[in-house]
């Protein structure tokens, strides 16, 4: 009888701890810069996220699909209910004018380990 009760307590403990997890929720997954000139080729946006889980959330990395896009992210753990940010800078200097779409892959210790963010826009040619 003691073994059965002990086994049930262990299973309950495992089930409860399995539900204890960080969980990331972004305010938006896509940002459109719209149209901007090649004369001012650097544009920025900020993606805000909330830890909707019940454990601290840690962003392990945020990697852009090319060198023209640079993400900076909250390095310290984000406590449950708190917010963090990923600031993304796109630098179109030396790039061909026109439409672009870039991806930022975010990896965390959250329930969903990988999230993709997208930026896009249209850079117009500088008139002389």
The number of E-state strands comes to: 8
Mean pLDDT rating: 90
Structural class: mainly beta
| Largest sheet, strands/sense/barrel | 4 strands, antiparallel
The helix content is 10-25%
Order of helices and strands: HEEEEEEEE
Instruction: Provide the spatial order of strands within the biggest beta sheet.
Output: 1-3-6-5
Q: Which stretches are low in confidence, meaning pLDDT under 50 for 5 or more residues running?
A: none
Q: Strand portion, in percent? A: over 45%
Shape: rod-shaped
Count of helix runs:
1
CA-atom Rg in angstroms? 21 Å
What is the end-to-end distance? 87 Å
- What oligomeric state is this? single chain
Task: Describe it.
- The protein is mostly beta strands.
- The protein contains one helix and eight strands.
- It has a four-stranded antiparallel sheet, with no helix packed on it. A four-stranded mixed sheet has the order 2-8-7-4, with no helix packed on it.
- β7 and β8 form a beta hairpin.
- The longest helix has 18 residues.
Q: In a few lines, what is going on in this structure?
A:
This protein has 128 residues and is mostly beta strands. It has one helix spanning 2-19; strands spanning 24-26, 30-37, 42-51, 59-64, 69-73, 83-91, 98-108, 114-124.
Task: Furnish the topology, listing elements before pairings.
Blueprint: H1 2-19, E1 24-26, E2 30-37, E3 42-51, E4 59-64, E5 69-73, E6 83-91, E7 98-108, E8 114-124
Parallel strand pairs: 2-8
Antiparallel strand pairs: 1-3, 3-6, 4-7, 5-6, 7-8
């Amino acid at each position: 009888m003691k073994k059965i009760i002990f086994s049930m307590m262990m299973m309950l403990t495992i089930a409860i701890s399995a539900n204890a997890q960080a969980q990331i929720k972004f305010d938006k997954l896509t940002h459109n810069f719209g149209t901007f000139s090649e004369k001012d080729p650097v544009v920025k946006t900020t993606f805000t996220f909330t830890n909707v889980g019940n454990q601290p959330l840690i962003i392990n990395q945020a990697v852009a699909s090319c060198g023209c896009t640079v993400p900076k992210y909250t390095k310290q753990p984000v406590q449950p209910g708190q917010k963090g940010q990923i600031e993304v800078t796109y630098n179109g200097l030396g790039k061909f004018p026109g439409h672009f779409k870039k991806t930022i892959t975010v990896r965390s210790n959250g329930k969903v380990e990988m999230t993709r963010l997208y930026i896009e826009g249209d850079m117009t040619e500088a008139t002389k």
